[in-house]
Design goal:
single chain, 4 helices, alpha+beta, Aminopeptidase, 155 residues, six-stranded mixed beta sheet
Length: 155
């Protein structure tokens, strides 16, 4: 189901089944999934249990950098506009802070106005641009957000 959301959301530079498997089973990081609960017609219930994934975020932790990296983030089209992305992004930020990360960095297509608006509203700021970053030569905006690390007493 995550692969279906990925394919629906991105025309190029998609994660593959193998990429998802690696992120879930072997990578240092977290994969969070928002799911529609049984009987929930609103589609706005992120949870770690449920019937059908409607959104996901892949966050990597890398040695040698204090920043987590958001490598993929998507919400299925039928579930957009319900606050799922905002809540899922916040949960990913909490996971990165709990891991001791100083912030999160990501790349977003320069023409993805909806995603840029989400990240900007959440406090992300542009710090660089990668020209011709994507397969179709679209530029990527590099965004970052500083995080307050959570101590074990506050997490």
């Amino acid at each position: 189901m995550l692969l279906a959301i990925e394919e629906q959301s991105f025309a190029t530079d998609r994660m593959t089944r193998r990429n998802f498997r690696y992120a879930i089973l072997k990578a240092k990081g977290v994969v969070l999934v928002a799911e529609r609960q049984a009987g929930d017609r609103s589609g706005d219930c992120p949870s770690d249990i449920g019937n059908r994934p409607v959104a996901y975020g892949v966050l990597g932790f890398h040695a040698g950098t204090p920043f987590a990296r958001l490598t993929s983030f998507a919400v299925e089209s039928d579930s957009r506009g319900r606050g799922i992305a905002r809540r899922l992004l916040s949960a990913l930020e909490d996971a990165a802070a709990a891991h001791g990360c100083a912030g999160i960095r990501l790349e977003v297509r320069a023409d993805n106005a909806v995603a840029i608006a989400l990240y900007t509203a959440a406090g992300y700021r542009r710090f660089a641009v990668y020209p011709a970053y994507y397969e179709d030569d679209m530029a990527a905006l590099r965004l970052e957000k500083p995080l307050a690390a959570l101590s074990p007493a506050t997490s």
